[in-house]
Amino acid sequence: MKLPMPLKNFNLFYGNFDFYKPRISGYILIIAFAALFFVYGFHKISFLAPQSVHQWRQCDCLSFAQQYYENGNSFWTPQLHYLGEDDTGKTASDFPLIYYSVAQIWKLTGKHEFIYRWLILFISLSGILFFHKTTEQLINSSFWSLIISLLLFSSTIYVYYSNNFLMNVPAMALALVALYYFYRYYKSYKLAHLLIAFILYTLAGLLKIQALTSFLAISGLVIMQILPFFGMDKTKFIKHPKLFILLSLMLFIVIFSWYYYAHAYNEKHNKGIFLIGILPIWNYNIGQINHVLEYARILWLHSYQSKLLQSIAIASFIFVLLNRKKLHTHLLQFLILLSIGFLLYLILWFQVFDNHDYYLINQLLLMKVVLIAALLVLKDKKPQIYQSHLLKILAIILLIYNIQTCAHNIQTRYNGWPNEKHIKYYRALESIEKSGIMNHIGLNEKVLVIDDPSFNISLYLINRKGFTNAIGKLKDSAEIAEKINLGYKYLFINDTMMLNAKYIQPFIHTKVGKYQNIHVFSLENNLIN
């Protein structure tokens, strides 16, 4: 049986197809983003209230933006719905550039959460687009660059938080754009590119200090160039090491200044709401360490990337190390420094990994650099395999599998067990305004939410300032009475079972109303002298 001519000429193992079209590849990526917008359900998710995994932190971010929007606060006085111990709500966390910017946009458009989501999404996709251009220039292949870039956009944690409210994804995206401009400087030595890179890295570090992983690896290479005993090859890494050091000092001064200000601001008003610092492994005992590892393995490991891709990345890393002489020295050293940084990061922030999946977002770069390095080694060592149609077909299958896995995980986050608490306790708060209950509670009235363990979920959803049980300060009658004396006039209960708690009985005589699972009581007749 003779094969048709097209099939006869299509050799799976020794093809020479290596798509390289930098002028159109970016447009292909944008089209892929548009398709994935619907595959991941963003056309529906974009219009949802904050919910599902880390609803707590989502509402904190939205609360900052809404307070800027409604109160007209200056940039330097971030505030939450949660009033805290000093009853002002003033506290700081991330550099509030995006919170403040969203508030200014809302002043023009009115408050719409999808605007916030889409701003984060735009920054996120911009980061991947610039990462694609960096990778394309490194590998000289539009095909492989598109595959690796889209694999990044098949990470559940990257995709989920791309259409969300937290700062981790935009921080990483800015760092990816910065990496692109630094690579352009590395190839051309144009100072404008270096300056742009530093500006972007500074903004990324202000949003999340963890986003500076690639910058620290680059800095390590510069140090290796300056100090000869590191055995650096004769090829200089950069042309302006002194300027790099000066700009690095400026970067750290700016970032340190913000965190110093945030720490002082919190000390003055409400400390303990946000982490400004590290949570290292050495402060945990063996039992606590095992607890974190078990939770991370069961709950979050599959959200980093699919287990299949994680296995491929590990095998690729070993392959690169075994064939390290085939890789350009600077890229090899960059990869090793990224790997060391990843391990140090796990050690320094170990305590967060039982519940905080988003802390790993900025570490996704390592896996992609490993894949880039493996492809470059393969291209040099086994060009016939690198160029084969079979390898490219397998890469496309891998990408489709990862996208399907990611889409399933995203849907599970909104329709499965991660969202059960929101559906059971908080969803009714989204529409409580329609019930008429909130007509009795002025925008400036202070409320208590007795059974909300977060700072801002309930308060943000009802858009009222107040106090929750986030730090365990509403667990007895005396603490509730203390808040009443401070002017708190209404009590919200999300869980009907809480009505049976004895310490609540003195405060539920004057009912304002009930809406689904939400019970609201007036506290004005419970003033304690």
- Fraction of helical residues: 55-70%
Percentage beta strand = under 5%
**What average pLDDT do the residues reach?**
93
Q: What string, H for helix and E for strand, traces the elements in order?
A: HHHHHHHHHHHHHHHHHHHEHEHEEE
Radius of gyration: 26 Å
The biggest beta sheet, please? 5 strands, mixed
Which segments are poorly predicted (pLDDT under 50) over 5 or more consecutive residues?
none
Q: Quote the distance from N terminus to C terminus.
A: 99 Å
Strand order in the largest sheet: 2-1-3-5-4
Which structural category do the helix and sheet elements fall into? mainly alpha
State the shape: elongated
**How many H/I helices?**
21
Strand runs, count: 5
Write out key terms for the chains shown.
about 525 residues; mainly alpha
Task: Characterize the structure shown.
The chain has 529 residues and is mainly α. 59% of the residues lie in helices and 4% in strands. It has helices at residues 5-8, 22-39, 42-45, 55-71, 97-109, 113-139, 142-152, 156-162, 168-188, 191-207, 213-226, 241-268, 286-304, 307-322, 329-348, 364-381, 383-386, 389-415, 420-430, 457-462, 477-485; strands at residues 446-449, 466-468, 488-493, 511-515, 518-522. Strands 2-1-3-5-4 form a 5-stranded mixed β-sheet. A hairpin with a 2-residue loop joins strand 4 and strand 5.
Draw up the topology in text.
Blueprint: H1 5-8, H2 22-39, H3 42-45, H4 55-71, H5 97-109, H6 113-139, H7 142-152, H8 156-162, H9 168-188, H10 191-207, H11 213-226, H12 241-268, H13 286-304, H14 307-322, H15 329-348, H16 364-381, H17 383-386, H18 389-415, H19 420-430, E1 446-449, H20 457-462, E2 466-468, H21 477-485, E3 488-493, E4 511-515, E5 518-522
Parallel strand pairs: 1-2, 1-3
Antiparallel strand pairs: 3-5, 4-5
